[in-house]
Fold:
Amino acid sequence: MTLSAHRLRWLAAAAAGALVLAGLAAPASATPAPAAGTTAYVTGTGPDTVSVISTATNTVTATIPVSYKPMSAAVTPDGSTLYVADHGIPEVHGSGTVAVISTATDTVTGTFDTPTAPTGLAISPDGDSAYVTSKAGGDLLAVDVSTGAVAATIPTGTSADGVVLTPDGGEALVTNSGSGDVSVVDLDSGTVAATIAVGKHPTGIALAAG
Structure:
């Protein structure tokens, strides 16, 4: 697969945390997930929490404790689940974790371990896989969210950081802050299809719509 260069927009990532908006409304349930676009989730590496913000009132409605140094977050397409990459300290904790949070109750319902400290996080369009960058390992991890098992480990570049998926879920673009480039990963084959030099210390990344 190829990706047209004009569709890319590079955004700098904030060092202190990350912000995501809730996606589509979840199916009806006893406690429904927030409606589309009404809730933002902000990771805080200082207090090790996720702040839940109502975009209607611009207020914090809940604070969710997570593990050490939450770096990024992503909501499933149906809006029901929030995943948070908890980086930890590699020298102290060894591996990191990804927290699984119910957006209906704003509570952690589970966690799964990653082999090395996770940094960036993206969810596949079908909600079945989480793609997690490992800054320490320089890898992109494909995780089966139903089991928490790492299905594939794809080497990218030095200090893999941010990640975004194409709308069809066929490719992942990974910023490598240590090697100053972006890896375009073919997720079907699990290989790097292209490497784009962008300069020193790239971190955040976003994909333009259209």
